[in-house]
Write a structure and sequence with these properties.
Layout: H1 10-25, H2 39-62, H3 66-84, H4 87-90, H5 93-106, H6 111-120, E1 144-151, E2 154-162, H7 167-174, H8 178-184, E3 189-195, E4 199-204
Helix pairs in contact: 1-3, 2-3, 2-5, 5-6
């Protein structure tokens, strides 16, 4: 038998391509508090966002993981860019590099859109003649993370800490949190479960 044609699945990708178009053409409308940050901070954020996108798209494309490439290598970065984007960002070298790179990244999965946008930003040759972007590994590493702090497996608080924090440092900071101290009152820590970059679980009796 034949399956009925359903266009509902196209709506999500259509909305995404509309966001890409608005970003490049200069009509982003997302209102966020991040746009109130100083320009220099947003420039640094844009650079990290785009280098993470290059890395994700490059590795997923090589491994033929097209779904995650689109979802995590393109959609997430575009949403992150829109959250900090404004007219002043668009005129900076970081902003111009971000748009130039983004178009090259979408070219394998949306060649017609990429070709149109590539011409719109001033390129004369086809986007297919452009080199694939490269990333700086240092810019793909998060400097800080949000570490979940649990007591007996239940989330009791969170810490914003350096990405490379060790177990002892994480424990010391956790023991300064009022909510954690409340749940430890009258109890003894039997052991700790530390998952770097994710969580610290204090197991008590």
């Amino acid at each position: 038998g034949t399956l009925p044609w359903n266009e509902n699945g196209l709506n999500g990708i259509l909305r995404f391509y509309k966001r890409v178009w608005d970003l490049v053409i200069g009509m982003p409308v997302t209102a966020t508090t991040q746009k109130c940050l100083p320009l220099s901070e947003r420039q640094a954020m844009v650079k990290k966002i785009i280098h993470k996108a290059i890395k994700k798209c490059t590795t997923d494309l090589e491994d033929l993981r097209f779904n995650t490439m689109i979802a995590n290598g393109l959609m997430e970065p575009v949403n992150s860019l829109l959250a900090v984007w404004s007219a002043d960002i668009a005129t900076t070298s970081e902003g111009k590099e971000a748009l130039d790179t983004l178009i090259r990244l979408i070219a394998p999965t949306a060649p017609h859109l990429a070709e149109e946008l590539w011409e719109r930003i001033g390129h004369k040759q086809s986007v297919t003649a452009a080199t694939w972007p490269t990333y700086d590994e240092a810019l793909t590493v998060d400097e800080t993370i949000t570490l979940v702090v649990q007591v007996n497996g239940k989330v009791r608080d969170r810490l914003v800490v350096d990405a490379d924090i060790d177990q002892e440092s994480a424990k010391s900071l956790a023991l300064e949190l009022p909510n954690i101290l409340t749940h430890l009152e009258g109890k003894t820590i039997q052991r700790e479960v530390f998952v770097p970059g994710r969580l610290l679980n204090l197991v008590v009796d």
